[in-house]
Design goal:
The protein is α+β, with helices and mostly antiparallel strands and 265 residues long. The protein contains 10 helices and 7 strands. Strand 1 and strand 2 form a beta hairpin. The chain starts with a strand and ends in a 6-residue tail after the last helix.
Length: 265
């Protein structure tokens, strides 16, 4: 008995495909959801809690259709998936009066975990409207924390003042941040270490135009010699390559900048 497909540890054979085709023929008015439930019942394909595995079964049926093994009934509707089409959080209304006080007189600060609590919406809104990348729902298990003074979320912008109070004999601190102008140190000497994640994303954007050179950089982000490989010979920057650079916009500037010996940010 030949195996036609393996999906979620279930092996689909010629006999299984014949059963699916017979269900489609015998119940022509069934939707894809109804068909998947019938198939789960026929296979006794259930979860540990006894519920039918009809969602997984629908994915299996789609795989079989794409492989040319069966022909499913036409898709009737595409229900809205709120997990995919998320509404952006509204701008929160907060007291933003600057807090100017000596640290010793600062009220107690509380770090509160807000995941799956009412204040999670506030966390999402703060990230959406105060982080330059906006809010994106993380994948998988995660925690979210707010720093509160009473019930007021706070954010500090006194790094420059804190650094000015360091002992003069200490070596310059390493300052890790995004490559934004507002993150650059002022009068205090620091060792600036920009985040490489955003630069890496720029190289991902240029893969269609520069497949090999971009992958070289992505494969070894810790090796400076790999970055040198991004310096394309001038001849490659003409014709179709130039059009490709224009097409990929901001991400392509990383390649052009490295080609001229500049910076990507």
């Amino acid at each position: 008995m030949d195996a036609k497909l393996k999906y979620r540890n279930r092996i689909v054979t010629d006999e299984d495909i014949a059963l699916i085709q017979s269900l489609i023929t015998e119940h022509p008015a069934d939707s894809r959801r109804q068909l998947s439930k019938r198939l789960c019942q026929a296979w006794n394909w259930v979860q540990a809690n006894g519920e039918l595995r009809d969602m997984v079964c629908r994915s299996l049926l789609l795989q079989l259709e794409r492989a040319g093994q069966i022909q499913l009934p036409p898709k009737r509707c595409s229900p809205n998936n709120p997990l995919v089409r998320r509404k952006k959080p509204d701008r929160p209304s907060l007291d933003q009066t600057p807090i100017e006080v000596d640290l010793c007189r600062l009220p107690e600060l509380v770090i509160r975990q807000v995941r799956r609590l009412p204040q999670e919406r506030l966390f999402n809104a703060l990230v959406e409207h105060h982080h330059y990348l906006g809010y994106r729902q993380p994948v998988g298990e995660h925690l979210k924390h707010l720093i509160l003074m009473g019930e007021r979320p706070i954010a500090g912008e006194n790094l420059e003042d804190l650094l000015s109070r360091r002992l003069a004999q200490l070596p310059p601190p390493i300052r890790i941040c995004d490559a934004l102008s507002r993150n650059l140190p002022g009068t205090v000497k620091t060792i600036l270490a920009n985040c490489l994640i955003h630069g890496r994303r720029n190289f991902i954007d240029t893969i269609p135009a520069f497949p090999q050179t971009s992958r070289n950089a992505l494969g070894r982000p810790d090796d400076g010699q790999r970055v040198v490989e991004l310096r394309e010979p001038p001849a490659l920057l003409g014709g179709d390559r130039a059009s490709a650079l224009c097409k990929f916009g901001r991400g392509s500037r990383a390649v052009k900048a490295f080609g001229s010996g500049g910076n990507s940010h």
